[in-house]
Queue: 2 jobs
Job 1
Amino acid sequence: MSGATAPAVAFFALAALAPVVVRDAFLLDGLVLILLWGSVAAAWNVAGGYAGQVSLGHSVFFGLGAYSAALLGTRWGLSPWIGLAVGAVLAIAVGFVIGFLSNRLRGPYFVLATIAFSQVLLIVASRWRAFTSGSEGIAVPFRPGFWTLGIADKRVWVYLILALAVGVYLVQLYLERSRRGYQLAAVREDEDAALSLGVPARRLKVAAIAVSAALTAACGALWAQYVGFVDPFYVFSVDLSVRFALGAVLGGIGTALGPFVGAALVTTLETYLRARFGGIGAGLVGIYLIIYGVALIAIVRFAPQGLVPWLGARWRRPAAGTAR
Amino acid sequence: MAGRAVAPARGGHRAVSLLSVAGVTKRFGGITANREIAFDVAAGELVGVIGPNGSGKSTLFEVISGFYHPDEGEVRLDGHRLTGLSPDRVCRLGVARTFQKLRPFAGLTVVDNIMVGALTRTRDVRHARERARALLERVGLGDKAEAHAGTLSTGQRKRLELARALATEPRVLLLDEVTGGVDQRTIPGLVQLVRELHAGGLTLIVIEHNMRVITAVAQRIVALYLGEKIADGPPDAVTRDRRVVEAYLGQAYAAPAPAP
Amino acid sequence: MSASPGAAPLLDVTDLDVAYGDFQVLWEAALRVGEAEIVAVLGPNGAGKSTLMNTISGLLEPRGGRIVFQGERIDGLPAHRTAGRGLAHVLERRRLFPFLTVLDNVLLGAHNPVARPHRAETLARVEALFPVVAARRTQLAHTLSGGEQQMVAIARGLMARPHLLMIDEPFLGLAPLIVEQIGGLMRRIRDEQGIGIVFIEQNVELALRLADRGYVLESGRTILSGRSAELLRSDEVKRIFLGDLAL
């Protein structure tokens, strides 16, 4: 079980302090995105890390959240908070189906199935012009006010997303320390052995996926409001799914802080490279893949458990005399 | 919630059947791994299950513990039907098992491993941890509490697996090979542990290849061969049973020695 | 058809100790096989029979003891070296390459540099003994029945032109009729080609009816050895397999 919560407190405290000292909109934007992608990576971690259900189709939940918020806002003028709730419910439904599949399919077959889900919704969203405006995507209206999440001040966004991030972090922490957490760890290690000890493995896996789905959808809804535009080819993309998983894997799959650190790394690199090389389209996609590749190779080679455990081990080494 | 088995009944004739296997048949494609296996286990008994390779012992365990559903027949615990239930449900009802190919949760510590079992009986994590530590001492792994299960030797893993299953407070414990693959010197210790558990009132069904061990420990032995039960009785009778000798060694050994 | 008493044995294993890490599995194991002799290695589950065979062929390294084959020490030699010296090992459960053809499987048996030049001639000999190899040349190995696979596996072993053929559980999972067939083929290999055979078997009576001599292992030690006729019906054997109460 990952020990110290001190680094996490430091991480979130830093994030909380930042808006006080930093005024630059660009940097604040970066912080919001770091916290947001961190939250999604952490939401993914609930299923992928803690329950061992690796999915590369999580963008299906993200997109559901984004589209729910956007569609309910543009078509019926409903508050994006309601959109978030609806998106979460839809995501849970899809999550149950995927959870059902997780008990039927093993390993790579399950992963492929998750990818299939996101792609099916991509096709639906990009073709259903009548409902979703098809491939053009949806521009999210900006109506000032908290209830409508029409917030111009980046600093407020930072605190909003920070609250989300802390929430998801605490969900993970609960998963680590609680009875369900131990049981999930057992399922992750050896499902049959877990079953033989009375652990309701199937139910737990489905529940983990459902929770992960709901949290991911919530992130999607908030993201839609923040960015202001929902593009089906982006929100349901495999790229995005991979990014969620990557953040968790690079930062440390088995830890609560890991996904945030991993996502911070990826987002920072990405933002920097975009600013440096500019432009959009194919060239940028190529750069991402290079970052991913290099980061993955480096982590797998030097810190296979992820950054957080690796840093944690180095931290503890000077205190070699003290037992854990 | 979890009851401990009552004290072993002497004699056995009037003993109440705790676990009953009736007409269990399990087929895999063209092979009948278990054919109409039937026997009862009384509360507090220690029954050994023997048989050459391929006789269906492991399949029987998988059926009893709920990992396989038999094609015919049923298994009952105290009258309660177990067949058709999922393995975790079977465990919660009171049947625990170990695996022949040991399956520790390698990435978790020894204490955490046992806690997983304990948490089936209690919701309180702290209480589960206490229970786990007590069991650790019981099986002789007290000093290995915080070690990662993956670092244990085979003999230690056997003890861990035992403690983990015990943590679920079973009424019947299925032990799949106690002495297989362990250092010779650790066998007496493991056997002693099993004896103590039995003396404490636990009902045990033990698959064992080591004849010396099982004949010394079991009150009763069930012998399987090619999927069928060929003998059921006290150890001395079963190991002399003509069919059992024939199964293990061949007819030449089963036939009475020629007159000098 | 057994070795004459004075002749040096084909294979002489003495005092063999084998361990996996800290965990010792064989103690002072011994085994001797003469020219053109069939020897059975028996014992209860976990006795160390496969470990013994794997160590002789070089898949495992011994901690101590000697393995002398054809007068030369081979203990510590890795498996790909022993293959070229006249020792062939047919693994438990056949282990054919499932997606290669029967012919490819068999030809791979002659991979080592000593056997390679004579491949065609050996193949002809092998096909004469095992018609199934010729009949199913182009079939993928995994499509064959258990008995056919076993024959192909032995054929593959013979392609290495061995003086000693080691087979781990040749009769596992096979119908009695096939067992008879393969037993007969093993006798023919011994008689016609003068090749020595060592095999591991679970079924004691079956093994001793086929073999000239036998060894019984228990818990990593060689407990008994002797001519088959002696071991058949032996009370000692009963005790090893069924415990003291069996007597």
Job 2
Amino acid sequence: MTGFFASEFFHNYRRSSSAIIGSALMVVFAFAVIAGPFLVAQNPYDIASLNLMDSYKPPVWLPGGDAQFWLGTDGQGRDVWASILYGARISLFIGLVAMIASCTIGTLLGLIAGFYGGIIDSVIMRIADIQLSFPSILIALFLMSAVGTGVDKVLIALTAVGWVVYARTVRGSTLSEIEKEYVQAAKVAGLPNHKIIRKHVLPNVLTPLIVIATIQVGTFVLIEASLSFLGVGVPITQPSLGLLIKNGFDVLFSGLWWTSVFPGVAIMMLVFGINLFGDFLRDELNPRLK
Amino acid sequence: MTDQPLLSVRDLRTYFHTFSGTVKAVDGVSFEIGQGEVMGLVGESGGGKSVVGFSILGLIDSPGKIEGGEILLNGKDLAAASEAELREVRGREISMVFQDPMTSLNPLHTVGRQMDEVLRLHTDLDAKARQTACVEMLESVGISRAAERLKAYPHQFSGGMRQRVVIAIALLARPRLIIADEPTTALDVTIQSQILKLMRSQIAEKGASMILITHDLAVVSEMADHITVLYCGKVVERGHTRDLIEAPSHPYTRGLIDSIPDTENRHERLSQVPGTVPDIRNLPKGCNFQDRCPRAQALCAEQEPALAPQHGSLYAACHFPLKPGEAA
């Protein structure tokens, strides 16, 4: 470990306040989604533990607040704080899984397109171009209305939107990578194509993906929130942060603002943290900015 | 079977079909290399030298295509071989040394891993035997503390050392033919002769043959048994090294030899071949060299010369070849 703490990466990390704030926010959220159920007494989706008498309690510092629910409650008497912890779980889970799926599929397609070229390349890249000409939220909306709603459907929609950026990046790096003599040398040594791709091309095109993947988790959390807000995202039994905002939005103008504002602040901080850290990674991993 | 050459290339034609016309990068090239021989393949940039090397290995990518000819390796035609058959040949029977050792090793893998990869692919040795083979090979190319150096990454080596590693990798599977594409061009002049001597001794020791592709006649004159000179994708002259260097019969070869700096006449202005290589998509009628040739006459613009025997061991494609002792 001394190697890491002595590295230039760690040195720059300590000097970058945005990196520290970003990673601190990410650590807080990681802790919250892992330990969330143990932090709060109430499971907001266990109907038996709810009490309708507790509905629409304001946050604890306002008149009528209850020390048991420090961020207030919603119309069914659910603790907003507990809902946020459970909701952040679903939001982050969707963001991470969709990112991993997008990254895997996109990287694979980008490698194939870049390495083999020709018709395969044209087909993959034209699909990517068409996809990029539509706003991602629109594509997701189309898909969701076609395949229905649910966590798995959201994952499919996000992956269908997200692979393009990896495919394009990887294809570009692959094209410049296969020009290099060590790839020629591997061909000359008689290595089969799949081994050349796996051992010589893939490791050399991965670095820019780290940045894209990090920032994409944030983007996916936002898209998922938008979808849920529009009512085509996750089901009511598995509310993400976006669905919490939607639920609270109905009563927002009745002065019951806390039910949607606090989940909104949570999304903001999560995405803000991810983007701050992503920016730091981009600066660190891009040799041209050094 | 003893007089059968190791590699016999006959009338090889490799064309690139581009939007701006067909580039006949290699157009009717023939040569032979015997067991243990070194052949120099010489020509200017863009003369089709490297394309010959890649054609032999079947590594011509679209829009390029081998349009015709035979590449016989021990009697087996590589030009007609399938991709699977070619993969068996690559690395095992024919290997290649590239120009730039800075980019011909993968920066992310250790030298040992890159060597091991070749052995794993082409031999049945177990891990320990492969390790021993790698260490021995590194030592034989003059890298000390070889066992330790196997764990090093390419950036931890100097340019000359890397080229030694590249040569070691090329020799690992004991190929019968090594194609060296400008193996010393990217190296410091002081390192060049070391590397050349090393290659010479290594192929002699291992009984391999070599095609040395270079623009530098000084290099081939030290290394090669015989030389083939390419111009615009065609063989313009070939023959034994001594005959060709001492008394070339083609004016182009003469020009190349005269442009080697001569330390004994250092006050003379260095001579050069006048003009530039013509556009290979739009070659002139007749001899390709006519515009740059001091001996060109009306016939040269009319009729393309064919390769014909000259003095000694030489063959040249020229209507008005030089005789021994004759100035250009």
